[in-house]
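2 proteins. here.
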Amino acid sequence: MLVKLDDPSLLSKVIDIISELVTEVKIKINEFGMSLTAIDPANVAMVKFRIPKSAFSQFETGNEVLGINLDSLKRILKRCGNGTSLILEKKENFLNIQIQDRIKRNFSLNLIEIEGQEKEMPNLEYSAKVEMSSPDLISAIEDCMVVSDACSFIIDSAGFAIESKGINSARSEFSRDEATIEAENCKSKYSLEYLQKFMKGAKLCNKTVLHFANDHPLKIDVKTEHMELNFLLAPRVETED
């Protein structure tokens, strides 16, 4: 297996984001490209990431599954600078990582055994789909974090709203002119601790797509020409005493 990325900056940013959710992953490299799917230890969030084969300038592989410690990989990828290229080559039980710029720098990352079956992101049905500006979404989540540890995504006749209520409250409203809304009226509540981490992914593109329904998991889609990143977050369902 040998693959090459001429611009590894996006991979570095995504691995940094995912490492805040999970510590070890199985990275699959096959005829379709590079991908990983993982669930966090609390079973609250799930993440899926894919780089298509077309994004690589060199791609020689069969079906490989690499057990990776993300913290170790993240530290190596941060050594990539502007104008560098990245070569990943599996040799026995190691992943050889070569960073090329003026000089060639070589790292060797020990591959690890990860138990358990490979996870797949479930296909769920949603009553709401909202496509909106990533900066607007990030700003609304940051507003909610000022007042509480959870926020609600709300669809009503006025449009889409993100609201957080504690002793204090915050609410951002988006009309159908400001966001593309295909939805029935619904409401669901989610943890801001996780949403804050997901927003680092939203910064990678101009638009973010949200899928949700009443008390239903939230799916967040972030896509660029050479990358697809998906998050799934369980709802926070509160019971009355």
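next one coming up
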Amino acid sequence: MENKKITILHANDIHGQLNFTVDEELKLSGGISLTSGYIKKVRSEEPNVFFGISGDVLQEDIWGSDYKGTNTVNLINHLKPDAISLGNHELDYGLAHLLIFKECVKSHVLCTNIYVSQLEEPLFMPSMIYETGGIRMLLIGVIPKAFFNRIMSDEFCRNMLIYKDTYEAIRDERKKYNDKKIDLVVLMSHYGIDGDIALAENMPDDIHVDLILGGHTHIDMEKAKVVNDIIIAQSSYGTTHIGRFDLEIDTEHGKIADWRWERVPLTDDTSNFDYEVDDLADKIVFHEKPPRANAKLCEFAEVYTQKNRLYESDLGDIISDIFADIYPIDFAILQSGSIRKDECGPELTEKDLKQLYPFDDYYYSVKISGKELKECFDYLFSLKPDGSIMNGTFQYSRGFKIVVDGTDCWEKGCKVKSISLFGEELEDDRVYNVGMTRNCTDNCFTYFAKSFDDSRYSIVSLSTFHDLAKWFLGQKEKVVAPEKGRFIFENFDPATIKK
């Protein structure tokens, strides 16, 4: 029997990045219009085509807090994906929004891990059969438990929903189709590349998987990885590229006979420009923007910057102080990487604020003793087994001061010399209310090698950061960056940072 051919197009982590760019030679690249054009082109050229998106369709466009992703969904529907799996950002606005998102997307939304406990039923379609040209493909959507935990702050969710182990879920989905001949088993995953590799390495012998179409890591893969006979690939980030598999399937034996993968750059050389989608994008992204977006919120005394995430910055101080001023916490720690503009001011508009700090979420207070905080920062700056230091970089609110000695850091690690709050050294027995974003609380163990019991966490405001920050900044005639001195890094040469 002759092998049958199928083309699989896959995207991930679109994050509302809808616009194309133009270089000096007027060449176009990226954007929803070229993405749509490429998909239509391949669908017209190849007889058997599948297109899927492995999570994070939503969030990170600066209008996310206004539209909650509905602008993105409207455009994604024009791409006509055959299936979409969940990513962490689909859970950003809670369960109610997630269910509305599921109903608004005009394609199957897959997730096999979330179950309604009392009904023993999946909340989403866990898997689907996609059949084309005599090839029957089983698709299963999977997410790690850490993403599921994002909606567990809601009491209703805690009482009604449970997380089903991924291997158990895959096994159960495969059993559903024991009476059907399956030619290809594909996971649509948002585990990240390391998570996908671990999934493949530890795949039980009784579970057969052919492909993992991944997401979450935002990496530019030059070639697909093969782990435990499972092929793993991600497309990239935003709408700059699309992943493409061209496979030959031995349908007699239900296996891949031959395959080729590439990460296709979306340019006007590789893709046709879809003017219909461009007109819609222009209407949604530009004409429907709220008129208040360019209204002035306040003025900075001058242009302030964050040129290096490692060090204390003007913008880091300003944003950290806003958190500390509007929330009932002792001090705030803020990931440096969450500040997304390297300069801002002197005029600050709502648009500038959302570009500067695009994340809009609940804020947490975590109760941590002085002794534990010292241990956290000792680990943060220690020499790790892989030879790295500083597995996270942070900005701090006013009153906080940490002094770190970087002498011989690559041989011995950095030494935390002192940590104080408003001039007083941290007290071992005192419990401090430390302000953190949800991303920071989710990654506490990675940053600080400590996990804290749920009883220590509390949501300090249901109002989103942007709403409160707009009100807070609107009360000020001029914002002046404070003097430096919150993070003092002695005897450290940034040129020695290992790549």
